[in-house]
Amino acid sequence: MIKHTLLTFLFLISAIVTQGQNKEPLEKVVITSEKGKTQVSAHENGELQVNVAPKDVVKFKAAGLVRYSEFGAKGDGKTDDIDAIAATHAFANLHSLLVKADEGATYYIGGKERTAVIRTETDFGTASFIIDDTEVQNRNASVFMVGSDLKSFKPEMLPSLKRNQKKIDVSLPGPCLITVTNANVKQYIRFGLNQNNGSSQTDIFVVDKNGNVDMNAPIIWDFDQITDITALPIDQTPLKITGGRFTTIANKAESKYTYYNRNIAIRRSNVLLEGLQHHIKGEEDHGAPYGGFINIGECAYVTVKNTILTGHRTYSTIGAADKPVSMGTYDLSVNRALNISFVNCSQTNDINDNTYWGILGSNFCKNLLYDHCTLSRFDAHQGVANATIRNSTLGHMGINAIGSGVLLVENSTIRGRSIVNLRPDYGSTWQGEVVIRNCVFVPADGKPINASLISGSYSGQHDFGYTCYMPERITIENLRIDDSRHPENYQGPAIFSNFNSEMTNDSYREKFPYVKTKEVILRNITTVSGKALRISDNPFMFRDVKVTAGQ
């Protein structure tokens, strides 16, 4: 019988940069189909050599699916199965096959630098995955990366852009996610213990093949100049990933900002992730923070549904201001992404236990949604355009956001220190409106504090790289404030916290003026304490706000 090579295929995928992810190839796999048995071997240079017997190629294609065990995975919870897992996905990607984990298997994944790239439907089913982070070769190497066959490219450079521009002058092969940058302008110049010099002005939006901008996620900045532009075609076919029980054995590294990204990174648009569980064990009194076990970036139209997550323990380090600071550490992370939904998601630990950090961090996003979620925090660091929280319960870290558009909170219970905290480190800015409807607010989970509905801080002395706004209009309807436990000198809940305790008369000068709220509309606000809602501990600052109360 003549030996013949049916196929040699080389995958080379460049990593996407997000929160310290590197630019080295994520996957380097050579697939052959030669006489002999199906086997997987790793070369010293990191290349994965996969030979699939010709008869197995026929069998797998006829079945329409492959399993990890068919590529040598033991599933015994002890043998490192990452090479077999990566090989299975590489073959499935080549032939557009479904990947199924073996029912009841436990796959151990050690610290080897190997990323399994998912491009086809995957069913983790009832299988368990143990991800051991105690000895990791590359903390920035994702365990799984959900990728696309479509490649990003550089369209013709645009001279400039305007906020809310409806069309850009480019011709594209189809709908694309466009990212633009002006490296000569710095924004989000952070203030406080984690101070920094800001990020280059950036925006991300969807256009059709004719350059028409999806105005549900509009351009939010004026760009006088564009120094970089990237177009990423949007997959039109949905990709579904289901099941799986993942357990991270936590790292024991020094407590400093060396983020671990041993995660499932989603870098493809139009993805549904459903039924996954993530647990954490082995956390001690120190450790490096995590950049999100589910890490979504550079994509659009992603839904995480019916998923159970776990908050990480909070560790502290010395921040940029040479003072101790608690490090953000996340199980969910969303960066440079549009139309991302979390539906019916919860976490294993108490959402009101402040020894665990808030579960979500996000930057440069548009249209984020929590629906039927019970989670410790919603957070938008470097801006979100439009966010909705509905039918949900938020724990001790509550809702933290800066950004623009509409921030809608409805049919939800908020147990943070305020309903919405406008992040002071980024200027407590929201250029748009806030709507709070049919909600219950339990200040600080019932601890005795002076409650305020909208909190933040703004001195007017720091340049954040943009004009800072308070919400132009705030509408609050059908709100019950459970302030039954409160301090002895409690005056009643305030609409606004004291944003600037030094601004008590006309003599105070803001170097960078704050654009204050114009109108607050109140309808059917009740307090358990019986004390009336008032404007603020600093009535001077909010003296020009029009408050309209009605039933």
In words, what does this structure look like?
- The chain is built from 2 helices and 36 strands.
- β3 and β4 form a beta hairpin.
- The chain folds into 4 domains: 90 residues, no CATH class; 182 residues; 84 residues, no CATH class; 135 residues, no CATH class.
Q: How is this fold's topology laid out?
A:
Layout: E1 8-14, E2 25-32, E3 39-42, E4 48-51, H1 54-63, E5 65-67, E6 76-80, H2 82-95, E7 98-100, E8 106-109, E9 116-118, E10 122-132, E11 144-146, E12 176-187, E13 199-207, E14 228-233, E15 239-249, E16 264-266, E17 271-274, E18 277-281, E19 291-305, E20 308-309, E21 316-318, E22 324-326, E23 330-343, E24 346-347, E25 360-371, E26 374-390, E27 393-410, E28 413-414, E29 420-422, E30 430-441, E31 452-455, E32 473-481, E33 494-496, E34 519-527, E35 534-536, E36 546-550
Parallel strand pairs: 2-4, 5-7, 6-8, 7-10, 8-10, 9-11, 10-15, 11-16, 15-17, 15-18, 16-19, 17-19, 19-23, 20-24, 23-25, 25-26, 26-27, 27-28, 27-29, 27-30, 28-30, 29-31, 30-32, 31-33, 32-34, 33-35, 34-36
Antiparallel strand pairs: 1-2, 3-4, 12-13, 12-14, 21-22
